[in-house]
Design brief:
0% strand, 82% helix, mainly alpha, single chain
């Protein structure tokens, strides 16, 4: 079988494995939607303003893919490392890139599933607006900006046991969400926090997707930050993977 065929098979069964625990899927989908319902929809100053409402929905969309990437990669990898099934998979005659791509595709599918209720709620209950091609551009931008979060989750998964990974993922997720302006718009930040926020991948992802959906000027620090964090966490993830392999398969 080719790498593409093996990747498709592995992604299929990874997705089925996740769907067998419905609460895991429901949690990923429900939390961003509930945050939108409780914090954005009742605030009519934001919900009735097309610009603010669109940005709020984008922030919740970034939060959805960020949470999905951190939890799916961080907890799945940490959990798999504690099971005998994982060493067995490494003995199979398939390149490691197959497992990496399959994890990205299966996690990406769940991430886009989490976006659907946000788009529906935002379209029905707020004044958010965007043309169809802008929505497509926004989805592409979200997929690109999700890479640092997937790699952060990978680093957490390969660096600590499952119980520790759960706590660290939650701290990292809420820290990035608040610091990145996903729960509160950066316009409400103090000057020092607004400056500091621009160094976080969550803020960079927010501005990158807003540019894709609403147009305007793209801040240079948003796309360069996404590239920088992607390279940094990719290098760290590869080092942690090799360290884990050296420890358990020596």
């Amino acid at each position: 079988m080719s790498v593409i065929s093996l990747t498709a098979v592995h992604a299929k069964y990874s997705l089925l494995e996740t769907l067998r625990v419905p609460i895991a899927v429901i949690g990923s989908i429900a939390f961003p939607s509930l945050a939108l319902l409780f914090f954005v929809v009742p605030n009519r100053t934001v919900a009735d303003n097309p610009e603010f409402a669109t940005q709020a929905i984008i922030a919740m969309g970034v939060f959805a893919v960020m949470a999905n990437g951190l939890f799916s990669f961080g907890l799945t990898i940490a959990e798999n490392r504690s099971k005998p099934w994982d060493p067995y998979l490494r003995t199979l005659p398939a390149p490691g890139i197959v497992r990496v791509l399959a994890q990205i595709f299966s996690t990406g599918a769940l991430g886009f599933l989490a976006l659907l209720p946000i788009v529906v709620i935002g379209g029905l209950l707020t004044s958010a607006e965007a043309s169809p091609w802008r929505v497509i551009a926004g989805l592409v931008a979200i997929a690109v900006s999700a890479l640092p979060f997937m790699l952060i989750g990978t680093c957490i998964g390969y660096s600590m046991p499952e119980k520790a990974a759960i706590a660290v993922v939650q701290v990292v997720m809420f820290g990035l969400a608040f610091a990145g302006g996903l729960f509160l718009p950066p316009i409400m930040f103090a000057d020092w926090l607004d400056t500091l926020s621009k160094f976080f991948p969550s803020r960079q992802a927010r501005e990158f997707v807003i540019w894709a959906v609403q147009g305007g000027d793209l801040p240079w620090w948003s796309w360069t930050g996404i590239l920088f964090w992607t390279a940094v966490f990719l290098a760290l993830a590869l080092w942690l993977f090799r360290r884990d392999e050296g420890k358990r398969f020596r």
